[in-house]
Amino acid sequence: MNSTSEDLHGNAPDSSPVALLIVDMINDLEFPEGPDFLAPSLAAADRIAALKQRAKAAGVPVIYVNDNFGKWRSSFDDLLHHCLTDEVRGKPIVERLKPAADDYIVLKPKHSVFFSTTLETLLTYLQTQTLILTGIAADVCIQFSAIDAYMRDLKLAVPADCIASGSAGNTQQALAYMERVLSADTTASADLNLDKLLS
């Protein structure tokens, strides 16, 4: 069997200056603060689903980056199955945001999407310079990830209606920080100009 560099790198067929990240939304919400997350996360999920549809129509790749929740033998498929088939709090969120076959999947062990993951290598192959960050929690994983993206000279869009946390106050504080310190565009998802980001 002949192998070429094209064959070796054919697993990332997309090339896009922009990528949409969906962070930790494949989540059972079965933790003590889970009830506080449910309503805001459901609202964010609806907005993320609409934004995902627009992004894919524009050729923007979608990357799910999800916590392994400390389960080192876990797989994303097992987590997805658990959230969809067991009666867990997060089931309606996951139903709204089930990944498609052509979406990318990255598992993360800690708060940031970059820490000990393959994301940076994937973004290099995709030739991405701008990230649209969505998901939970606004003041933890989203904010940590935004800081790490900023440190890598990536441009940031964090649609205000596509992130959530356990309280509206925490979400607003995180948004204010990312806008002020990280130069993040926090325009609501419906008003986010994908064509401008792609140009």
Summed up:
Helix 6 (138-151) packs parallel to helix 7 (168-181). 43% of the residues lie in helices and 15% in strands. With 199 residues, the chain is α/β, with parallel strands linked by helices.
Shape: globular
Average pLDDT reading: 92
- Oligomeric form: single chain
Give the DSSP E fraction (strand runs of 2 or more residues).
5-15%
Low-confidence stretches: 1-8
- Main sheet properties: 6 strands, parallel
Q: Which range best describes the helical content: under 10%, 10-25%, 25-40%, 40-55%, 55-70% or over 70%?
A: 40-55%
Order of helices and strands: HEHEHHEHEHEEHH
Q: Structural class of the secondary structure composition?
A: alpha/beta
**What's the total helix number?**
8
Question: What is the strand tally?
Answer: 6
C-alpha termini separation: 40 Å
What is the gyration radius calculated from CA atoms? 16 Å
Short descriptors:
globular, disordered N terminus, 8 helices, 199 residues, six-stranded parallel beta sheet, alpha/beta
